[in-house]
C-alpha cells in the first residue's frame, strides 16, 4: 500500500453522480497498487499485526460508505469503484478472495505493489519494500493463472471475452520512487529509474493487448509533493521549496511530471504499434493540482482540506506523524471527510476519488475519456 503503508510499519466533491453508459463493457480487469486495491493486501496480511496491511484493516478506514474497514485505503469507495458503478458492473473482488465469481471482473492490484520486480529492491538493500511479492509482473502471473476460470482454455475464447472487457493498469511507480526516497536517495537519482519503470508499465500494457484487450486505461501518478506524508518526511531531503500556487514540494512534483510525460510518450508509441487498441491515459496529476490550487472551486476546506490529512492525530500543518497514523489506537478522522482530498497522508478520500473518477470517465482528466465514443 503506497508509501504510507510502508510508513505505517516503517510510509470533490460533488453529490452523487448519475452516469450514462456509453460503452458496453462486460467486465473489468485491473492491476496496480493501493489506489485501487480492493482487499488483496489485507488478505495477504491475514491476522498479522506487524505487516503493511495491518492498519488499513482497522477503523476509521471504510467509515464513509461501507461503515467498516473493507480493504480499501480510504474512508469509502475508490476511483475503481466509481468506474465499475458507471459501467453497471459490481465492485471488483480482490483476486485473492475465495468463493468469488470473477466472470464480471477481478482486481489483481495490491497495496505496496511496484512496477519494478521486488528483487530489484531486495538486491540493493532497500528495506522499505513490501514483504510480499506483489509487483506488476507477479500480478500478470496471477492473471495468467486465472484465465482458464475466466474464459476457458481456448485462446480464441479468451480473446473474445477480453475484447469486451475494460482493462486497467492502475497507478504504478509511486511505491518504486518512495522506497528509494526512504533509503535517502536524491530526487535526481530516483528519477534516473523512470525509463525502466515506464518500460515495465508499457510492457504489461502491451501484453494485455496481445491477450485480446481492446481497451486499456493506464494511470499516471499523482503529484508526489502534494501528499501530507511527503510534505512532512521529505521537505529537508528535497530542499523544501514549495510551489507558490499549491504549497506542494516542487522537486517531488517535477518527478511526477517526468514520470507522466515519459509514460504518455511511451503510450503514444505503443498506440502506433497497435492501431486497433484503445489506450486511455488517466491523468492522476492534474486533478490533485486543481484541488490544491483552487479548493473553494471544488467545495473543499480551504484552510487545510487539500494538503492536510483527514485521518491522523499528528497535528501540525499537515496532520501527519509516523507515531500517530490512521488506524492506530486513539487516532481519529476529521469530522467531514468530504471537505478533504487527503485521507491518511497519501491516499484520497472517497469524495476526491469520486471527482477523479468522474474526470476519467467524462473528462477532462483522461485522454480520451473512458466513456467517450472517440479516441
From TrEMBL:
CDD domains: SGNH_plant_lipase_like (cd01837). It holds the Pfam family Lipase_GDSL. It comes from Urochloa decumbens. GO terms for molecular function: hydrolase activity. The lineage of its organism: Eukaryota, Viridiplantae, Streptophyta, Embryophyta, Tracheophyta. Belongs to the 'GDSL' lipolytic enzyme family. Keywords: Glycoprotein, Hydrolase, Signal. The keyword Glycoprotein applies. InterPro entries: GDSL, SGNH_hydro_sf, SGNH_plant_lipase-like. Coiled coil: none annotated. This is GDSL esterase/lipase. Residues 1-20 form the signal peptide. Transmembrane segments: none annotated.
Amino acid at each position: 500500500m503506497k508509501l504510507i503503508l510502508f510508513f505505517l510499519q516503517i510510509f470533490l466533491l460533488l453529490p452523487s453522480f448519475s452516469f450514462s453508459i456509453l460503452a458496453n463493457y462486460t467486465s473489468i480487469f485491473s492491476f496496480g497498487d493501493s489506489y485501487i486495491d480492493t482487499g488483496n493486501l489485507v488478505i495477504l496480511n491475514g491476522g498479522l499485526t506487524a505487516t503493511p496491511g495491518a492498519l488499513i484493516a482497522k477503523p476509521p478506514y471504510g467509515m464513509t460508505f461501507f461503515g467498516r474497514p473493507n480493504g480499501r485505503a480510504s474512508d469509502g469507495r475508490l476511483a475503481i469503484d466509481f468506474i465499475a458503478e458507471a459501467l453497471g458492473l459490481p465492485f471488483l473482488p480482490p483476486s485473492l478472495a475465495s468463493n468469488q465469481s470473477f466472470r464480471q471482473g477481478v482486481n489483481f492490484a495490491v497495496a505496496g505493489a511496484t512496477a519494478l520486480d521486488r528483487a530489484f529492491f531486495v538486491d540493493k538493500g532497500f528495506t522499505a519494500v513490501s514483504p510480499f511479492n506483489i509487483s506488476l509482473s507477479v500480478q500478470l502471473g496471477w492473471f495468467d493463472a486465472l484465465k482458464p476460470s475466466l474464459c476457458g482454455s481456448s485462446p480464441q475464447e479468451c480473446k473474445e471475452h477480453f475484447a469486451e472487457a475494460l482493462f486497467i493498469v492502475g497507478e504504478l511507480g509511486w511505491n518504486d520512487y518512495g522506497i528509494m526516497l526512504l533509503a535517502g536517495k536524491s530526487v535526481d537519482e530516483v528519477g534516473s529509474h523512470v525509463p525502466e519503470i515506464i518500460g515495465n508499465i508499457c510492457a504489461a500494457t502491451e501484453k494485455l493487448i496481445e491477450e485480446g484487450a481492446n481497451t486499456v486505461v493506464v494511470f499516471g501518478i499523482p503529484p508526489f509533493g502534494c501528499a501530507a506524508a511527503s510534505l512532512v518526511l521529505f521537505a529537508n531531503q528535497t530542499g523544501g521549496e514549495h510551489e507558490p500556487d499549491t504549497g506542494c514540494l516542487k522537486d517531488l512534483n517535477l518527478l511526477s511530471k517526468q514520470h507522466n510525460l515519459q509514460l504518455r510518450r511511451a503510450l503514444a508509441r505503443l498506440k502506433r504499434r497497435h492501431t486497433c487498441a484503445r489506450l486511455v491515459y488517466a491523468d492522476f496529476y492534474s486533478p490533485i493540482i486543481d484541488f490544491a490550487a483552487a479548493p473553494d472551486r471544488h467545495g473543499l476546506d480551504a484552510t487545510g482540506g487539500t494538503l492536510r490529512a483527514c485521518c491522523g492525530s499528528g497535528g501540525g500543518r499537515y496532520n501527519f506523524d509516523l507515531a500517530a497514523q490512521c488506524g492506530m489506537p486513539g487516532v481519529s478522522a476529521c469530522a467531514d471527510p468530504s471537505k478533504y482530498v487527503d485521507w491518511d497522508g497519501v491516499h484520497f478520500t472517497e469524495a476526491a476519488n469520486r471527482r477523479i473518477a468522474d474526470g476519467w470517465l467524462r473528462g477532462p482528466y483522461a485522454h480520451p475519456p473512458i466513456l467517450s465514443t472517440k479516441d
